[in-house]
Amino acid sequence: MKRIFDHNKIAYGGDYNPEQWPEEVWQEDMRMFKKAHIDIVTLNVFSWAALQPSENVYDFEKLDKIIKLCSENGLKICLATSTATHPAWMARKYPEVLRTDIQGRKHKFGGRENSCPNSPVFRKYSARLAGKLAERYGSNPSIVAWHISNEYSGECYCENCEKAFRVWLKDRYKTIDEVNRAWDSAFWGHTFYDFDDIVLPSELTEHFSMYGRERTTFQGISLDYRRFNSESILNCYRLEYDAIRKYVPDTPITTNMMGFYYPLDYHKWAPFVDFASWDSYPGPDEPDGHIALSHELIKGLKRDKPFCLMEQTPSVTNWHAYNKLKRPGDMRRLSYQAVAHGSDTVMFFQMRRSIGACEKYHGAVIDHAGSEDTRVFREITALGEELDRLGDRTLGSLAKPKAAIVFDWDNWWGISYSAGPSILIDYHEELYRYYNALHKRHIACDVIGTSDSLDRYDLVIAPILYMVKDGYDEKISEFVKNGGSFVTTYFSGYVGDSDLVYGAYPGKLRDILGIWVEESDALPEGEENSFTYDGKSMPAKVLCDIIRPEGAEVLGRYEKDFYSGEAVITKNSFGEGKAYYVGTESGEGFYDRLIYDITKEKGISGVMDPAEGRDGFSEEMFDGLEITRRFSEDKEYTFIINHSKDDRSAVLDKDGTELLSGRSLKKGEKLTLKHNDVMIIETI
Ligand code: GLA
Ligand code: ZN
Questions:
Q1: Gap from CA of 82 to ligand 2 centroid (Å)
Q2: What number does the ligand 1 atom closest to the CA of 311 have?
Q3: Which of 73, 76, 81, 75 lies closest to 5 in space, CA to CA?
């Protein structure tokens, strides 16, 4: 079993910034950490200014002390490289390190993640700092992981980036004719004669805002810029990675990600992180399935390893419009939810509240009162005790999903840059609609990218697969021919890698699905059509495809308007498998029913059915009761979590031991969970 780093229990701690405090406070921190059962700290996240006060001066004295203090106190360390904010002297001396934004405004010193990813100066000094840290601290056994930069983000439109973009394009397309072809630049006479004619697509060129969104007149160049920008930032990460690896042979290295973060294609990043980690900051009313979907995305980046919950707030954020407190028990429940989906850590931002700047009102393990006599500190301590008791049991264990949802950044960018058919098309929310139907039935699911193999799955759902990249149709075709069930939706199969239309929709998926789409009706907000499915009327919203079946069986037909009676839901037999097409956006009841039908046909069941003996479709979905399972070599861990405000019951499917209470449980036993209750049941 693969553990993400050297640890013998679920790592518990988080971002700790003692450099912002006088040393007297440090001893008190150590005392309180011990009390709360904290065993890991992420150090050195924002210290570049202190570590390199001028171009040729490095000063590690304070960091030496901090690392010594933490090591001596038995804390494990996740050591950050501090490169998310460059020092002020660098911006003054080398303005090229500063970013330019999409409006063409050259930035000045300030903020964070404000360094141009293609600045040679930034690249040189960030990699150098990472190397110096690795050389100095690499052999310290307390350091269990390295943490490069912090939440890489954004984009840059400066001269460095423009030059680098041309080089990137030359490498990708070889000739300017190929570029012109890929971008269909003859449209509006934007034909380029030379690579030097190409400028970054910004608000000075092809971009503008409309309907509250960033739009472009040329999707081809904008899409390539997105790929280039994500890769440019990844290259900064990789330079630091290599600099660390020179001195540190095998301590794992990561960077903290942000779930569904639009500018960075984490699937392309995944091969370069030794384990995936992310920062989870759900809104106060965010449904549990929504949070779970982000965990699945991160879990899917490294399918055969657990991940790391690098940050969450113990109590409150500062950056939402209304920063509602996590209620008693919420932090514990959300921590276990991460573990239930494959995290081997529970970590916080931050250990002690700062007294200044924009995060001074962000929750922390130790708040401004500095007291251990607070609700939050008591809850943290209680969870710390529990995690100590759990020990290493769940570490390295993994889910074994038979279902997968495909998510792809190129596709996301393509969909959101598309002018038409509707601004209401929301890729992430459409994923969630399908995911939630699986989630509510406790069916394990991976979120995967287009480069992942489909071999291990029986069901693959690719909502709004607008862009079918080169070869991906073959992958799907193989999968279905070999007996898999495949589901896709409206606005799928339109374009290839460069956003050029294939022909009749759904393009290369036409044979697999046994249909073609003649027209699509975009309905404004509030307008609906409807269709029948399984004898019931279901809503049809946002986009209504008018489908011409070519061999597919029709499962649903419209009920209104000039296309009343036309097909909207179809199912095609292809090889040994089935391919479903859902030609509209519908309501929760439809997704519940469809997923029930497809998974039943395929023999995919939930990890546990909370209602023993339930036969057939039931509207009773046990909302808010989450059940997942992780498998180790010889044991299974079933997580049952009640996110709802009301009691929820589940009938246990096997004998086991509930690890948090130590209770022995019998198969068939009815378990009742109150709001926020968590059970972790070990079975052999
Ligand atoms: C992010 C960052 C932290 C901090 C928190 C505040 O996750 O990584 O440095 O800014 O947000 O929520
Ligand atoms: Zn730049």
A1: 20
A2: 7
A3: 76
Question: What amino acid positions are annotated as catalytic residues?
Answer: 151, 311
Query: What confidence score (pLDDT) does residue 616 get?
Result: 76
Measured in residues, the chain has a length of 684
Q: How far is CA 439 from the centre of its chain?
A: 16
Best of 151, 294, 320, 362 to mutate for ligand 1, by most ligand atoms within 8 A of CB?
Answer: 151
For the entire predicted model, the pTM comes to 0.98
Three-state DSSP state, 13? strand
Q: What is the dihedral of CA 366, 372, 377, 381, to 10 degrees?
A: 120
Ligand 1 neighbours (beta carbon < 6 A): 150-151, 256, 279, 281, 311, 317, 349, 359, 362
**Residues of the chain below pLDDT 50:** none
CA dihedral 500, 506, 507, 510 (to 10 degrees): 170
* Dist. CA 203 → ligand 2 center (Å): 15
**Cα-to-centroid distance, 637 and ligand 1 (Å):** 31
Could you give the angle at the alpha carbon of 308 between the alpha carbons of 304 and 311, nearest 5°? 160
Three-point CA angle 364, 365, 369, nearest 5°: 80
Distance 273 CA to ligand 2 centre (A): 24
- H or E element: which one contains 365? none
pLDDT of amino acid 86: 98
What span, in angstroms and rounded, lies between the C-alpha atoms of 106 and 95? Answer: 9
- Choosing from 82, 359, 365 the residue with most ligand 1 atoms within 8 A of its CB, the one to mutate for a pocket test is 359
Asked if 464 contacts 490 with a C-beta cutoff of 8 angstroms, the reply is yes
Ligand nearest to the CA of 350: 1
Cα–Cα distance for residue pair 228/201, rounded to 1 Å: 12
What is d(CA 501, CA 506) in angstroms, rounded to the nearest whole number? 10
**Residues with Cβ < 8 Å from 403, sequence gap 6 or more?**
438, 443, 444, 445, 446, 457, 458, 459, 460, 461, 599, 604
Q: What is the predicted pLDDT for the residue at 1?
A: 66
C-alpha of residue 83 to centroid of ligand 2, in Å:
16
b/e per residue 587-621 (b: at least 16 CB within 10 A): eeebbbbbbbbbbeebebebbbbbeeeeeeeeeeb
The helix or strand, by DSSP H or E, that contains position 128, with its residue range, turns out to be helix 120-137
- Look up residue 100 and give its amino acid: T
Q: Could you tell me how far CA 622 lies from the centroid of its own chain?
A: 25
The two tokens of residue 620 are 């009773």
ω into residue 18 within 30 of 0, thus cis?
no
Instruction: Return d(Cα 172, Cα 170) in angstroms, integer.
Output: 5
Ligand 1: residue of 47, 254, 255, 279 to mutate (most ligand atoms within 8 A of CB) is 279
Q: How far is the CA of 312 from the centre of ligand 1 (A)?
A: 8
- List Cβ<8 Å contacts ≥24 apart for 6-9: 6/76, 6/144, 7/40, 7/76, 7/144, 7/344, 7/392, 7/395, 8/391, 8/392, 8/395, 9/39, 9/387, 9/388, 9/390, 9/391, 9/392, 9/395
Q: At what angle do helices 23-35 and 61-72 cross, to 10 degrees?
A: 30
Rg (CA), the chain: 26
Q: Which ligand is nearest to the CA of 255?
A: 1
Please state, in angstroms and rounded to a whole number, the distance separating the CA atoms of residues 518 and 653. Answer: 48
Nearest-atom number in ligand 1 for the CA of 151 is 8
Element (H, E) at 161: helix 159-173
Task: Point out the ligand nearest to the CA of residue 357.
Answer: 1
User: Which atom of ligand 1 is closest in space to residue 279's alpha carbon?
Assistant: 7
Atom number of ligand 1 nearest to Cα 317: 12
